[in-house]
Amino acid sequence: MLKRSDIGALGEKIAGRYLAGAGYQIREYNYRCKCGEIDIVALDRGGMLTFIEVKARTGSRFGTPEESVTKPKQLKILKTADSYLKEHAVFLNSGYNIDVIAVYLNFSTRKATIKHIRNAIAEINFEQE
Prior knowledge:
Elements: H1 4-21, E1 25-33, E2 36-43, E3 49-57, H2 71-87, E4 97-106, E5 111-117
């Protein structure tokens, strides 16, 4: 049985291959800063900077992969994306996207199913709850 970190790493590898096949140019894997981590930073086919959160699961016991990208996690991703832009002196005229890629791993069939949710984190209400 694989550890959780191994499942995550496998999911990122599968997502990276999927994105490359879809014409994305991977700029960086596992960007880290004090705010958090972004799994993949890439340019889509149109040149749009895209931050990608990858979630992999082997079953639905704890919910779907995309359900684990909660509002607090979304806020953390936004702060980390902002840090990336500042650190790399990226000035955007057209904005950027934050996507989620859910990877469903089936070890008995040795297959993975991918669900790519484009612009998954479009707008967040920053009011205190």
